[in-house]
Amino acid sequence: MMRLLRNAAWWVRDYLYALRWQVNAALGRTDPREFTTGDLTPVVILPGVYETWRFMTPLITAVHERGHPVHVLPVLRRNRRPVDEASASVVEYLAQHDLHGCVLLAHSKGGLVGKRAMVRDTDERRIDSMLAVATPFGGSRYGRVMVLPSLRIFSPRSATIVALSKEHEVNGRIVSVYGQFDPHIPEGSELPGAAKNVRLDTGGHFRVLAHPRVIAELINLSEEPQAAR
Q: How far apart are CA 215 and CA 221, in angstroms?
């Protein structure tokens, strides 16, 4: 009973967090080009489905203030496009802007897009690593009952999830961070063979983005030498 009450409380706080930042995102007027300045490792933002880059503004601001150029991809919009198509846009963007050694910062579906982009980028190696927060690498049982194709891809049996689960070679360059309880991904976000799987001491799908461990892991990926990692 206590566990159910705890999870219910996390669920409520999760949606309040999401509502707050969806409103802030709708009202935001910041030009994303303001974040592309900086001399440190480039960070590329991959938001979740139905989210714009503005949903991740706190993380973007924090890493930009440390000296990292942060790139958002307007072409992704609310990230409703198929994973394969969206990942092609990511790789194309990196090539057009001649970016190298990038760290992807992804939330939810963004992590699937990011992993596929890393597979596509194997030869060029413009992407160094990825921090994926609450990503359904193994899918979610709820995806099976979704009507919209943009949500049905999260089924563990979907072609997207099955295909990505067979791509093991990039897992060692991915850090997966997730909560003890995720109302959208009850199976969790553990990634076999990941550089690191980090299970937070809290729950949620959205509010985990604000956990201090997320920025700490991002700093580790983007500022520590690869050999040290």
A: 10
pLDDT one-digit tens code per residue, 171-223: 999 999 999 999 989 999 999 999 999 999 999 999 999 999 999 999 999 99
Query: Sign (positive/negative) of CA torsion 93, 97, 100, 101?
Result: negative
Q: How many Å is the maximal CA-CA distance in the chain?
A: 54
Tell me how far apart the alpha carbons of residues 109 and 80 are, in angstroms, rounded to a whole number.
9
Buried/exposed 68-99: b ≥16 CB within 10 Å, e otherwise: bbbbbbeebeebebebbebbbebbebbeeeeb
| Alpha carbon 224 to chain centroid, angstroms | 20
The C-alpha atoms of residue 31 and residue 29 are separated, in whole angstroms, by: 6
pTM: 0.93
- The CATH code of the domain at 1-223 is 3.40.50.1820
Q: Which residues contact 48 (CB under 8 A, 6 or more apart)?
A: 55, 79, 107, 108, 109, 110, 134
**Which amino acid is residue 90, in one-letter code?**
V
More confident residue, 110 or 16: 110
| Whole-number Å distance between alpha carbons of 207 and 217 | 16
Main-chain dihedrals φ then ψ at residue 135, nearest 5 degrees: -100, 130
User: Residue for token digits 């997730």?
Assistant: 178
Three-class HEC string of 109-142: HHHHHHHHHHHHCCCCCCEEEEEEECCCCCCCHH
